[in-house]
Amino acid sequence: MNVAMRVALALMLVAVAVVSALVAWGPLHNLFADYQDSEPSTYLLFGLPFVAVSIACLVASVFVIRRR
């Protein structure tokens, strides 16, 4: 895989990570709100998988860029 393809793949992974983090912010910001209409575990259940996807994409993008 040449350098241009690795950079393009890394940028796509970073874009997925950013979008996933923004989606995760929706449920997770309710943990700190004054009014909560559900249990905190509900917000964690819907928010943490997106955080995991975001972290996995960022780690994968680092591995793609650093590969020789």
Description:
The chain is an all-alpha fold and 68 residues long. Helices cover 78% and strands 0% of the residues. It has one domain (3-66). The chain is rod-shaped, with a radius of gyration of 16 Å.
What class do helices, strands and sheet pairing give?
A: mainly alpha
The arrangement of helices and strands along the chain is HH
Number of strands: 0
Largest sheet descriptor: none
> Ranges with pLDDT <50 over ≥5 residues?
none
Question: Nutshell version of this structure?
Answer:
The protein has 68 residues and is mainly alpha-helical. It has helices spanning 3-28, 40-66.
Which labels suit this protein?
68 residues; single chain; rod-shaped; mainly alpha; 2 helices
Secondary structure topology:
Layout: H1 3-28, H2 40-66
Helix pairs in contact: 1-2
